[in-house]
Amino acid sequence: MVSINDHLGESEATVELFKKLEVGQPDFAASVYDLADEPLVSAQEYDLAKRYLGDPIARLESAKRNFEEGMEYSKTSRSGDASRKAY
Fold this sequence. Notes:
This protein is mainly alpha-helical. Helix content is 84%, strand content 0%. The protein is built from seven helices and no strands.
């Protein structure tokens, strides 16, 4: 849904859907927060995003680890240049 909304320029639909999930299915909302974080922040829904953000240091470490793994993968990938550009 998020990908479709992004493509259509409808990120506010993602925000509205996430708000509905938070009310009706908070555990599920928490499990899909990572898909909605950028639209929430873009919509200045900071309080809502903060509830699900978790530990910012842990998120940064995870992003760093994912980046490093992607860069290592790009060294062995047949499409290494494209892989590096993806990260």
